[in-house]
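Ticket reopened. Same input as before:
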Amino acid sequence: MKTTLKFIAAAALALTAQAAFSQTAGTWMARLGGTTITPQVTSGDMTAPSFPNTKTDVGAANQFTGGVSYMYTDNFSVDVPITFQPFKHKLYGAGALAGSGQIGEVQALPITVFFQYRFMEPTAPVRPYVGIGPTYAHFLNESGSGALTAMTNPGGGTPTTLKVDPQFTYSVQLGSTIAINDKWFVDVFYAKTPLKTKTTFSTGQTLDVTLDPVSYGISVGMKF
Amino acid sequence: MHSFKVLALGLSAALVVACGGGGNGDQSPKIKYTTMVVFGDSLSDIGSYRVGPIATAGGGRFSVNPANPATPTNWTELVSAQLGLNAPCAARLGGFGVAPIAPNASTCRNYAQGGSRVSITEGNGYDGVYGGALTHPVSKQIENYGIDNGSANFSGKELVTVFAGGNDILILLDQLKSDSTATGQAAFVTSLAGQLAVGATNPSTAGPVIARAMANEAAREGNTSASIVAAAVSAAYAAGNIAAASPSVYGPMVTTATGLATDAGNQYAATNGPALVGQMGGVGTTLAGDITTNIVGKGAKYVAVLNLPDVSTTPSGLANGPATRALILAMVNQFNTTLKAGLAGTPGVLFIDTFTNGQDQILHKENYLLSNVVDKACDSTKADSSLICTAATLITGDTSHYLFADGVHLTPYGYKLLAQLVTKEMVLAGWL
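Engineering reply: fixed in the latest deploy. New output:
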C-alpha cells in the first residue's frame, strides 16, 4: 500500500512540480465530482410467508457529489461530503428469486462527517489522508415493481411497498488530494461503511440485509 | 463558529430527505396478455357448479367460499387479477340438476370443472347426465374452447394454465379399494361357509347353500357384518350343523374368516396397486400430448402446466394406511414424471412444481404462516365437500391459515400461496 501511495505521489509530483499549493490550518476547500456506492450485499432470508431462500441483491449507484473540508490544523481536517440527489439503487431478486430482474428501487442518502488526518507537509502537492466518521444512512422513495407485487400479493389489488430502516453507523476512508495549481486540486477517495438494515414489506415480511457499501469518488475542488 | 458551519453543511445534506415521497413502481406485467384460458379440475374451478342447490348453499368454489362470490379466491382468479385482466368466469355453468350452458362464450375462458379427469368422461361425481358434476375431461374442455372461440387456435397472447390428474388418482384408488373389499368379502364368505359346512349333514351341498345365504343377506339393504354372520349360522343350522348355533363354535370361525378376508383384500391391493402407478404414467403422457398438440400446437405461447401436489399428504391421503399412502405417492410421482418428460423441450411451456412446493409447505409450515397442514377447515358434518363450504360451515377456531378446506382442496390462504408460486415462476420466466 505504502509503495502504491509513493508511486502515485511521485507521478503527481511530476505533473504539478510548479504548483504552490498549501493546506494549512484554517483552509477551506470545496469540491464537486461523482461518487459510486457499491453495496457488498449479504442477504438474509425473507421472513414468512415466503419461499425458501428468498433473498435480495442491491445494485450499485452513481451520483454527482461534492464536499466541503476545513483544516483545523495543518494535518487534521473535518470533511462533509454532500449528495445533491439521493443514490438510486435497484433491488433485484436473489436466491430463490434469482433471475427475477428488478423488483424495486430504493434511494439512499448517506450523511457522513469525516474526521481526517492528512499526511505530508501542508504544501505537499499530494496529500494522502485517512478519515473516519459517523454515518447516518437514510433511505427514501422505496418502491416495488409489479414483479414484487406478483410474488408477494398476487391479485390482491394493492401494490406491495417496502420501507428500509435508516441506520447510524460509521465510515472509514482513504483518500488523497492532488494539487493542480495553487488554487485547484483533485480529490480521490475510497470508503467503507459497515451497514446492516432491515426492509419491511407492506405484506408483512421483513428481510435483513447486510449492505456494507464501499464508495469511491473523484472530485475537482478549490481552496479558499 | 467553525463547528457550527460544519453542522450547517450536514443539515443541508439532510434537507434533501425532506423532498422525498413514497410511491409505487411500475406495476404492469412484462407481457400484455389478452385473456387467461384455464383447463383443469376442482383446483382451478371458479364456479362451474354455482347453480341450483350449490348456489343456494353459497358455494361454487372448492374452498371456503367467500360471502361475496365476486371475491377472487381461487389461484387462477388471483393470477388473472395480477395480469390486469377482467374478472374471469366459468365457461360452462350447470350440473347438480341444471342443464349446462355457456354463460358467455365470447369471454368466459375458465373450463376447469370439479371432478374432471384428463381424458375420461366419467369423473368424480359424474352421473351420466347433469344430475351431478359435469366433469368434462381436459380433452373436452379444450374442444369446448375451440367451439367458444370459433377456432381451436390460440393467438399466442393468452396465458393458458393446465392443472389436472388428481381425479384420475382418486378414482383409480377408489376402484382399487372397492375391488379389494370385494375380494376380501368373497374370501370371508368362502372361509366361513366352508368351516360351517364341515359340521353339516352333507358338507358338500351345505357349503354352497350357506354361501348363497350370506350373499343374499349381503345384497339386502341395511345388512351388517353381524347380520351376514347370522344368516350363515342359521343356514348351517338348517343344514344340520346344530352346534354352529353356539357363539363359542361359530365365533372362532368368524375370527379365522376375518383374518383370511383381510389378508385377501391386502393381497389384492398389493398385487394390483402397482398397475395403477403405470396407469397414472399413461395419464401424464396423455395430458402432455394434449398440451403439445392441442394447446402449444395450436399457437399458444404461454402455457403454465402445474404438476400434481403430493396427494398422499392431503387429509384425504392421510386417512389411508401407510401402504396405500405409499401407493398414492408413487402414482403422483409417476404422473408428474411422464407429464414432465412429455413436455420436455416444448416451447412456451412453463412447468410449475407444485409437488415440491407443497411438500415444503407441509414440512415447514411456519415459513408460509400456515397454522395447520393436516386437518380440514370445513366441518365435514356440515359440508362434506368444500364445494358448499362457507364461513358458516367451518370447524370452530381460527382456520384462516389452514392449508386444506376439505380432503384435497385448499383454503383461500392455500390458494393464495399457490398463486404466489405460479406468479413467482412466471416472473422468473420473464412472463410477468
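The first strand of chain A starts at residue 28 and ends at 38. Residues 56 and 94 of chain A are 5 Å apart (CA to CA). Please confirm and we'll close it.
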